[in-house]
């Protein structure tokens, strides 16, 4: 009996030891990325191709390649700010129209479906406290920027900022005309669909 | 003719020949004018003003003093406004990229500021007109925050990389040469201020409209931004002869 008990205890001990052991799983090795050197001799930073995120800040990247570095920076920051605005507020309207052409009979029957989609996406926001954290110039002199905005600034009321910039925004005649054309196209499409 | 006279004549000829062969390294007008505007060896309460060419020296000096006083007021507060419209079509690429930018400063107490100035130096330069170096007695003089470093090609490193210094922000601006030097520099300074606004925006309004019909995408983007810079100072300048471009490095308080 004593021998049996000893064997039982040893067996349990062995089981417990096996249970605790963690099998070492080989970690997937990330393929080595080629080092890309920019125009100013600086290697491409991670944020150019990886999303950066923290709990208190929202980050977006922007790219611009214009006739000179200054305008490239301007375009890149404009694109990054636009992405932040899109992240805060985006509205999408979509109209789908399907045309069906039905011709023939029996084996010759042919059905043709054509689909047309018109979509309009508007991203509009008032931003407060956008900073450019990093700038990187690629080998073709294109400029990449990493911009950030504090999440707290997005959550708070934007009224003062909104008032500050509202007067600056006057829609151009061309934009208004383009909008009217777009609305007409929508209306015509909807008429055709009914 | 005596032997002595021959020796003198030959010596003179040799001196003339040597003088004719020697090339004198004369700095270009731009480099010379810019080096005269460099006040980095002075404390931070010393400013430089330039007039551009005028018909009289008196007028040039008074314009240069005004220009220096303007820098003092701009340092106190500079309000910036920038608006941009851009449109893109998927079949044609970028259609427009138009910007409208402005800067404002308070000049109401300009006379009072000028009264407090102590004139340290006055130069006259064919390109810059009068150059005056003045000390603002209303302000404490401190060490300059940044000194330009140069790469192997002799270009300042800030052309490629923004300097980093706690408590300050840096912006770089450039402008092609204008007819008068003061206008070229003002354009580069203005661009540096706008660059500071692009890099850190206090308030911005952004609206983008994207329309997709069949396979054609049209996109229009409008952005307006405003900001107020405090402690705005031009801390270095550079003239790139190859591209005929003036560059300004500006700093402002964080």
Short description:
Chain A has 194 residues and is α+β, with helices and mostly antiparallel strands.
Greatest chain-chain contact? A-B, 50 and 41 residues
**Distance from first to last alpha carbon of chain A:** 90 Å
Outline of chain B, from the CA principal axes? Answer: globular
Strand line-up of the largest beta sheet of chain A: 1-4-3-2
Helix content of chain B: 25-40%
Q: What report would you give on this structure?
A:
With 194 residues, chain A is of the alpha+beta class. Chain A has a domain at 35-89 and 124-156: Dodecin subunit-like (2-Layer Sandwich), CATH 3.30.1660. In chain A, 38% of the residues lie in helices and 30% in strands. Chain A contains five helices and four strands. Chain A has helices at residues 2-20, 69-88, 151-155, 159-166, 173-193, and strands spanning 57-64, 90-103, 110-137, 143-150. Chain A has a four-stranded antiparallel β-sheet. Chain A starts with a helix and ends with a helix. Chain B has 254 residues and is an alpha+beta fold. The model of chain B is unreliable at 15-30 (pLDDT under 50). Chain B is globular and about 95 Å long. Chain B has one domain (26-138, 149-253). The interface between A and B is large, with 50 and 41 residues. Strand 3 (110-137) of chain A pairs antiparallel with strand 7 (200-213) of chain B, so a sheet runs across the interface.
């Amino acid at each position: 009996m004593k021998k049996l008990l000893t064997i039982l205890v040893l067996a349990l001990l062995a089981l417990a030891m096996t249970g605790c052991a963690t099998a070492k799983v080989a970690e997937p090795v990330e393929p080595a990325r080629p080092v890309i050197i920019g125009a100013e001799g600086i290697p491409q930073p991670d944020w150019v191709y990886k999303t950066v995120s923290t709990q208190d800040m929202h980050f977006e990247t922007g790219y611009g390649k214009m006739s000179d570095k200054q305008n490239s920076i301007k375009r890149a920051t404009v694109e990054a700010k636009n992405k932040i605005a899109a992240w805060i507020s985006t509205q999408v309207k979509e109209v789908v129209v399907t045309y069906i052409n039905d011709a023939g009979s029996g084996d010759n029957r042919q059905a043709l479906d054509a689909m047309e989609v018109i979509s309009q996406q508007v991203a509009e926001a008032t931003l407060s406290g956008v900073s450019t954290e990093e700038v990187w110039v690629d080998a073709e002199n294109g400029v990449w920027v990493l911009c950030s905005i504090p999440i707290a600034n997005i959550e708070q009321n934007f009224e003062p900022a909104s008032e500050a910039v509202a007067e600056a925004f006057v829609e151009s005649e061309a934009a208004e005309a383009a909008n009217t054309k777009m609305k007409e196209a929508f209306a015509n499409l909807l008429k055709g669909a009914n | 003719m005596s032997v002595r006279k021959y020796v003198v004549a030959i010596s003179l000829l040799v001196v003339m020949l040597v003088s004719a062969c020697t090339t004198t390294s004369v700095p270009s007008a731009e480099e010379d004018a810019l080096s005269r505007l460099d006040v980095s060896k002075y404390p931070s309460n010393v400013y430089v003003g330039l007039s551009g060419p005028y018909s009289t020296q008196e007028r040039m000096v008074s314009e240069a003093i005004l220009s220096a006083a303007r820098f003092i007021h701009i340092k106190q507060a500079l309000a910036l406004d920038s608006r941009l419209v851009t449109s893109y079509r998927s079949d044609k690429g970028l259609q427009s990229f138009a910007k409208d930018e402005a800067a404002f400063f308070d000049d109401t107490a300009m006379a009072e500021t000028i009264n407090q100035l102590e004139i340290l130096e006055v130069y006259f330069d064919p390109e810059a007109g009068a150059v005056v170096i003045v000390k603002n007695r209303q302000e404490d003089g401190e060490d300059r925050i940044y000194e330009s470093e140069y790469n192997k090609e002799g270009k300042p490193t800030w052309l490629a990389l923004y300097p980093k210094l706690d408590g300050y922000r840096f912006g770089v601006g450039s402008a092609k040469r204008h007819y008068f030097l003061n206008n070229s520099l003002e354009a580069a300074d203005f661009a540096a201020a706008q660059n500071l606004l692009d890099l850190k925006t206090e308030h911005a309004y952004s609206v983008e409209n994207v329309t997709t019909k069949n396979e054609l995408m049209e996109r229009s983007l409008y952005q307006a931004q405003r900001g107020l810079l405090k402690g705005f100072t031009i801390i270095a300048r550079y003239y790139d002869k190859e591209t005929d471009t003036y560059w300004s490095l500006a700093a402002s308080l964080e």
